[in-house]
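Predict the assembly for these two chains.
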Amino acid sequence: DAGVTQSPTHLIKTRGQQVTLRCSPKSGHDTVSWYQQALGQGPQFIFQYYEEEERQRGNFPDRFSGHQFPNYSSELNVNALLLGDSALYLCASSLLQGGDSPLHFGNGTRLTVT
Amino acid sequence: SQQGEEDPQALSIQEGENATMNCSYKTSINNLQWYRQNSGRGLVHLILIRSNEREKHSGRLRVTLDTSKKSSSLLITASRAADTASYFCATGDFGNEKLTFGTGTRLTIIP
């Protein structure tokens, strides 16, 4: 049973470019959340998708957008990249259970913006 | 913004000793969870404690929750080299499913 898979594992982009990160949730999970983790910090919530809709959003600008597909997989898009967007981007899947469902994380995509 | 603060930020102990790390948070919560992260990889869920629970055990892990003090502790007994990792507490709010993570404790087990 595959867990959460993310691609690519590493990515280098230039300021101003756009990037798309991909995530496949754990089998049987219907909810996907994205987190940004800067070096030495805890993960910060970006947004969560359920039934192809954005359910919740953290304190991130509109440059960060996402999508969930009918097979529950998800994409995170970041436009107009800034140096400060360099981070580990983590995807987590879960079952929508009102807050008591543990998150299953992928190994992340390491994004470097130069 | 970070909800929680872990204490200490870093901890080094000898293999076989017990490790205790603490987490404080700011707002009312529905549950508190602990996660482990190895070397910048994904986080692994360890244990969840609900706001109406005071203590929970899972194998070598013991978690306590004091909602009056807005604090939690994670005890790892009989530590092993494989326990070397960063440990994060995360709080879940009522009515939504997002988790707010703390800043983490970096635990090093010395063989």
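The mean pLDDT of chain A is 94. Chain A is about 0% helix and 50% strand.
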